[in-house]
């Protein structure tokens, strides 16, 4: 499982010009799944992303997590994160979870994160999404488990 966390001033995801999810200050999280991912990994990743300290405290140090700053979380499925890009000029998706498996994992991941922290918005698996964001910093981290 891969999550690309981006600290943002705002983020929005649209499908066919309809807004599916929108947050202000918080995290836009691009989420990719691999064939060996399972429920335990989802639980661990949810904990990590909700507790990852990438927001500044009063001393301008990255010591606060998204919950401590009352930020939003926008989860966006992105199967291309799990692509194999080591060779050639075209990505291979043989290292990504199948669409059926990834859809189930994404739905479960949404439920896990929302159970722990209700300020969650989402994109739509398999849709042609347009994601708009203002990366704050920029601050971006790759989490993988």
Automatic annotation (TrEMBL):
It is found in: Cytoplasm. Its main location: cytoplasm. SUPFAM superfamilies: DTD-like. A motif (Gly-cisPro motif, important for rejection of L-amino acids) lies at residues 137-138. GO terms for cellular component: cytoplasm. It holds the Pfam family Tyr_Deacylase. It is an enzyme of class 3 (hydrolase). It catalyses: a D-aminoacyl-tRNA + H2O = a tRNA + a D-alpha-amino acid + H(+); glycyl-tRNA(Ala) + H2O = tRNA(Ala) + glycine + H(+). Keywords: Cytoplasm, Hydrolase, RNA-binding, tRNA-binding. One of its GO terms (biological process) is D-amino acid catabolic process. It comes from the Bacteria. PANTHER family: D-AMINOACYL-TRNA DEACYLASE 1, D-TYROSYL-TRNA TYR DEACYLASE. A Gly-cisPro motif from one monomer fits into the active site of the other monomer to allow specific chiral rejection of L-amino acids. HAMAP family: Deacylase_Dtd (MF_00518). This is D-aminoacyl-tRNA deacylase. It comes from Thiosulfatimonas sediminis. The lineage of its organism: Bacteria, Pseudomonadati, Pseudomonadota, Gammaproteobacteria, Thiotrichales. The gene is dtd.
């Amino acid at each position: 499982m891969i999550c690309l966390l981006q600290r943002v001033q705002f983020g929005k995801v649209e499908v066919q010009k309809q807004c599916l999810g929108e947050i202000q200050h918080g995290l836009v999280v691009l989420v990719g799944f691999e064939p060996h991912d399972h429920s335990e990994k989802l639980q661990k990743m949810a904990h990590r992303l909700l507790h990852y300290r990438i927001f500044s405290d009063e001393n301008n140090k990255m010591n606060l997590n998204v919950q401590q700053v009352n930020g939003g979380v926008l989860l966006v499925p992105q199967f291309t994160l799990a692509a194999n890009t080591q060779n050639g000029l075209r990505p291979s998706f043989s290292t990504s979870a199948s669409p059926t498996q990834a859809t189930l994992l994404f739905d479960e991941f949404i439920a896990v994160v929302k159970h722990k922290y209700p300020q969650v918005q989402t994109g739509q698996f398999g849709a042609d999404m347009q994601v708009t964001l203002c990366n704050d910093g920029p601050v971006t981290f790759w989490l993988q488990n």
